[in-house]
Amino acid sequence: MKTMTTEEIINLLDANEDLNIIDVREDFEVENGMIPGAINIPLGSIPEKVNELDKSKEYILVCKGGVRSANACEYLESQGFNVVNLEGGMMSYDGELEFK
């Protein structure tokens, strides 16, 4: 499984890279802020939302600490997706936040 550090994602965001970030935390968790541009698909909803994702894109998955997003990465990889797990999740991320 490919991984990315929070420093790497912050550098990509600062460079205005076009990123596809999926936050797999629950609704009550994302109320505390998300990485700018991320979409929220709670982990339990990934299988039913998989048809809305594009296999030609790379997705960066994030959760609170990195475990749920690793599980989501494993599932999506098994479905043929190109995914990256954000190491340490939101507990390690100290960049800008977006509130929905």
Automatic annotation (TrEMBL):
It comes from Ureibacillus acetophenoni. InterPro entries: GlpE_sulfurtransferase, Rhodanese-like_dom, Rhodanese-like_dom_sf. This is Rhodanese-related sulfurtransferase. Keywords: Transferase. Signal peptide: none annotated. SMART domains: RHOD. The keyword Protein transport does not apply. It holds the Pfam family Rhodanese. It comes from the Bacteria. GO terms for molecular function: transferase activity. Residues 15-99 form the Rhodanese domain.
